[in-house]
Amino acid sequence: MTIAVAPLVLKDWFGTNVRDFLCLNPVSISPQPVHALSMFVARTTEIRGQRRLSDLAKVVATKNGLWAVSDEDLRSHVRYQLPPSDSDLEQLRHSLAGLLAADRAVFQGTYSFQLAHVGLANSDRTDHYLGVLASRLVLSRPDGRQALAAVIRTGPSPPSLSEHSAPM
Amino acid sequence: MTMSVQTSNGITDRNLADLFERGAVFADRWPTAVRHRLDVPDPLAVTVRAALKTGSHVVITGAAGDGKSHLAMTVLDDLTPVIVHEVVRGQSLPEGLPEGTVVFFRDVSALTDGDVLTAVRQATEHGLTLLLTVNEGPLNTLAPQDQTGFLRDIRDAIHLRSRGVEAPDPSSTVIVNLSGRQVTRGDFVSGAIQKILPVVRPCRVCGKSKNCPRVRGAQQLRRSRIAQERVARLLQMLTDRGRHLTAREIWAFLIDLFFGWTCIATNDEVDQQRGYFWNRVFDGDNAIAQAIREDFDPLRVARARDDANLWLGHSDDLGISIPLTPPRVFARSNIEEGLVMFTSAKRFYFFFAKSWDIDHTIAAFVPASQFGVLLAKAAAGEAVAAELVGLINAFRLGLKTREDLWISRHHSFAAHRRPAVLAASGKVPSSTLVVRVPFSYEASAYPRSGFFPHRLLMGWSGSDQEFVIDFPTWRELQGERNLIVDRSQETLDFALDIFLAQGNPPDAADPEVLVYDHRRRRRATLRLDGSERRVDVL
């Protein structure tokens, strides 16, 4: 025996009740947590001074299992003093990549480094706005900044926390 | 005909054999006469008895089967002429109990909280002496409710001691926490064996036959102190890994070695082998035998010359007489039967051969025994921090150094991929780390009673944070680092991340960063120079 059942249509219900609050794409393997954290920290702090994160991304970014930027190009484009020896440079790139790009979220154009230091935070839109949302949630509370300051351990040049809510 | 020995208290060997046949190992339910007959001398009984005689309260805690009630009742059996009043459910203490009366709580779990709290209050108000046996769970529940503060002080002291913190007994009180006792490290096992062996009788199938493996095995064991010591050594081997074996578990295991076997009607020599204690130690149908078998079986130890002589039955070359038909005889017609006989012969040889240095063998074959050595060193007061630091450095950074603990870190978030590269830019001397030894207070206060740590707690000076090093952690620290999903290693790494984050190495302006790549198995040292914007590979 076959019983015909009307399909359950939830589109309208989701439209009015769910999308108004938060939308998550559960089938995506991106964003990685590191994207969201990087954006979150970038939006909640003011980091001053030259960081040259794009140079750092050139050092550690990979493409199809190889370095995205060749050693020769790296030496000509990067404004850090790199080891003169090719083997030392290779060792340096592997070490930094293992430490700063462990979650494979660093590419030549877009990059979210492992937050070994707050200064590595970067606005990387591949977080699908999760970091922005989180920063808005934290900064919307009166005690949010204090809570955040207690979490972030700062180095010799501490970044100041953002005074304003991050725009969506 | 089996002769039944009548003892002064009226308990016969047959009575005890019946008891063992039933597997009645709940010592606190033994009648007084049985308790006297099977009592294994315990140094703690002397301590408890002396405390009660001087009017001190005594609290005995521990897990089920640790022998709390047995210890208390053994002491009370000989505590005449002191008046003992046992607290029973629903009844408060009667008026007019004379000073010095011992108020006995046989099992706090069988009483209501109200019964216990009221009796404790009444007893302390009237100068009576308390003797409590209580599990740690009920004690934790009762302590906050006790207005006298007596149970709270007990609980606090127990908790601190179990973490290796020195906490003396509260005033006029003696606390005995049997949870910290490894009875395998005292004389308990050999004492229990001595109680069991004289009353072993043939199984019901064999009737009166002296050929029953139960009886023949017991006769062999009675004649060999070495074999008895080796049974005890195998049990101690289990506790080396921190496993807590209760007195009841050991009684049950030892009784089962003999009374757990029943011959089958058609058995022959090959079938009978399964009934000998030297096989049942490994093959018995119980958790302890299974654990022993998993850790160690002499069958897995290759001893070429001995093995050949065992196979051929050359007792003269072995130095001892093997009471079995040589395996080669059976192997001529059935190789499986030959192997069964060889297994039995090899295990017999393990227990009875003086020439076999089993401590050396176990140390080589059983990792847990190495952990036991570490615990023993720590318990004896030796510094083990450097040894533990060496394990952590090796696990995290592939380093062999032990003098300093490198504060290694990684910053990976991805749950589906483990960090392959870890780095450290600072270190702290091993000598600044503190290693606490659980139950060290008891081990010092009651030597020769078997108190022994089951794990170590490593921490920073002046900090409550501890990194717990039990046997699984110790093993994991020495394991090959796995770079794919491995929940055990991830848990360990997470614990180390938290622990090391509390380390406070001195800051360096231009730090050298030690980097270890576990995937490529390569180490590099980077020097960062901020002012020159320069990175060097050293």
Structure description:
The complex is a heterodimer of chains A (168) and B (538). Chain A is mainly α and 168 residues long. Chain A is 40% helix and 5% strand. In chain A, strand 2 and strand 3 form a beta hairpin. Residues 23-28, 155-159 and 163-168 of chain A have low confidence and may be disordered. Chain B has 538 residues and is an alpha/beta fold. Chain B has helices at 13-21, 32-38, 43-53, 68-77, 113-125, 136-142, 150-162, 188-196, 213-223, 225-240, 247-259, 269-272, 277-283, 287-295, 304-312, 315-318, 327-331, 335-352, 358-365, 367-379, 385-397, 440-445, 471-478, 487-501, and strands at residues 57-61, 84-86, 102-105, 129-134, 173-177, 404-409, 421-429, 433-436, 456-460, 466-469, 512-517, 522-529, 534-537. Chain B has a five-stranded parallel sheet, sandwiched between helices. A five-stranded antiparallel sheet of chain B has the order 6-7-11-12-13. In chain B, helix 11 crosses helix 13 and helix 13 (277-283) crosses helix 14 (287-295). The A-B interface holds A 32-34, 37, 79-83, 85, 88-89, 91-92, 94-95, 97-100, 102-104, 114-116 and B 409-414, 417, 419-421, 423, 515, 517, 519-520, 522, 524, 526, 532-537.
Topology summary:
The complex is a heterodimer of chains A (168) and B (538).
Chain A: H1 11-17, H2 33-44, E1 45-46, H3 53-60, E2 62-63, E3 66-67, H4 71-77, H5 86-100, H6 130-139, H7 144-151, E4 160-161
Antiparallel strand pairs in A: 1-4, 2-3
Helix pairs in contact in A: 2-6
Chain B: H1 13-21, H2 32-38, H3 43-53, E1 57-61, H4 68-77, E2 84-86, E3 102-105, H5 113-125, E4 129-134, H6 136-142, H7 150-162, E5 173-177, H8 188-196, H9 213-223, H10 225-240, H11 247-259, H12 269-272, H13 277-283, H14 287-295, H15 304-312, H16 315-318, H17 327-331, H18 335-352, H19 358-365, H20 367-379, H21 385-397, E6 404-409, E7 421-429, E8 433-436, H22 440-445, E9 456-460, E10 466-469, H23 471-478, H24 487-501, E11 512-517, E12 522-529, E13 534-537
Parallel strand pairs in B: 1-4, 1-5, 2-3, 3-4
Antiparallel strand pairs in B: 6-7, 7-11, 8-9, 9-10, 11-12, 12-13
Helix pairs in contact in B: 3-4, 8-11, 10-14, 10-20, 11-13, 13-14, 19-20
